[in-house]
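FAQ: What does the model actually see?

It sees only this:
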Amino acid sequence: MKRVLVMDDEIEVGNFFRHLLEEKGFQVSIAVNKNDFTTLISELSFDLALIDLKLPDSNGIELLKLLKNSQPNCKAIIMTGYSTVKTAVEALKNGASDYIEKPFDDLDQLENTLDKHLSVETVSSQEETNQIASKLGFIIGANKEMNELAKLAEKIARKNINILIEGETGTGKEVLANFIHHASLRYNQPFIRINCGAIPETLLESELFGHEKGAFTGAVKLKKGIFEIADNGTLFLDEIGEASLGIQVQLLRVLETGEYYRVGGESVRKTNTRIIAATNRDLEKAVEEKTFREDLLYRLDVVKLNLPPLRKRKEDLELYLQYFLGKVNASHLSFSKESLEMMRTYEWPGNVRELFNIVKRAVALMDEDETTITPIYLPEKLAQNSGHQIQHHNEDDLESYLTGWTRNILSMWDRYKDIQLDDVLFSVKELEKQVGRSFVLKSLKNHVGDRKKTADSLKITTRQLKYLLNEKGKV
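And it is asked to produce this:
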C-alpha cells in the first residue's frame, strides 16, 4: 500500500486529503509543523509528499530539500497560491514533481494530478518527454543543462502559465516552445508562431488582434487575428523584445484580462490563449532603457527557461548532425573524422540554425556518388580554429549560393518519391532570407555602411534592415 505525507499547518487541508486519499486505498500521515515533518520522514518511507509552500515555522522549499536528501525517490507536490507560483517553479527546479494551486476549485483536476503521481501503470515522465521531444526534433541528448531544462519544461507544460524563453539567436527557441505546447493539455489545439521583429509595427496589431471591415485603407473584409485563431491553444511570440511600446500595452491588457479589441472594432473579445514568448535580448536591460515595459515583463516572466548555446552542448553535436541529415533526406551520408573535428573546435555563433544551414549547404554541394562529407564541403570559417587549409565555395557569393540551393531543390525533386512539403517550404524561406540579406549587404557596401541611406534606397525601415542582417538583438 502506498503511503502519502501531507504537510500543511491548516488542519482542514490535512483532513481533506486524508479523506480523499484513504478512500483511494492509500495510507496518509499528516504533519502540521517542521518538527512533525522531520520526525515522519525519519521514521517512515513515503511514495508521495504534499507540501505547503508557506508555513509559520518553515517554507516548502526548505522541507522539499530535507525530503529529497532523506528520501530521494519520494515524489513531491508543492501546494501554493497564485501569488507564489514563481516560488513553486523554484520548487520544481529543486526536485518537486508538480505543484497545485490553492484553493482546490477543480477537484477532478486535483484527483487526476494525484492519480498521475501515485499510479504505477503510467509511462514514466522521462519516457513521455523523450517520445514528444523525438517527434518534434527537440534534441535533449547527454548535456546536463539540456536535460534539466527538458525536465522543467515538461513539468510546467501542463500548467496554464506564461513562459519566457531566453537564448541566443538560432538556439532553437521555437522548437522548445513547440515541445512545451505538445507536452501540455493544449496539444490538440493550435500552436501559432509570430515574429514580432519581422512584421512592420503597422501590420502587427492587425495580425495579433484582427480587424473589422473598413477599419483602415485596404481592410476590404473582416480578418480574424492570431489571438482569435489561437484561442485555447498556444501563441509563440518570437523576438518579443522587438515589439513596439504601443503593441506592448495591448499585449499587457490581453495578459491581464484575456480581453482585446479588433482594430476598428467596438466589442470586447475574449481569448484563452497561452503565451510563450522568446527573446535573444536582455529584457531587464531593455526595461532600464525604457524600451520594454516592466509590467509586461513581469506578466511574461512567470517561468523563465534559458536555452544554452550550441557551444555549451557540443557533446551532442553528432546527434544534431544525424537529425539534420535525416531532415534533408540525406541519412545515407556521414561526416568524415576531419569534418567532425573542425565542427567541435568551432564556436557556433549562429548556434543550431547555423549548423543546419551548413548541413544543407554541404548536402547541396556534394556529388551524387559521394557518401562522406569532407572538409572541402564546409565553409572556410570552420577551418580557422582547426588548422585545416581547404578550398571552399564562397558562401557570400549569391551566384554560388543560388547554384547550391537550386541543386538541392532539384535533388529533392528527382531523388525522392515522397518528401515532406514543410522541408521544401523551409528551404524556400531560407532562400528568401539569404537573397534579401545579399541585396542588403550589396546596398550597404554601395552606401559605405550608412544604414539609413541603405534602408531608404531599399524602401524598408532600419528595423527591417537589422532583421535581414540577423542583428535583431543589436542596437
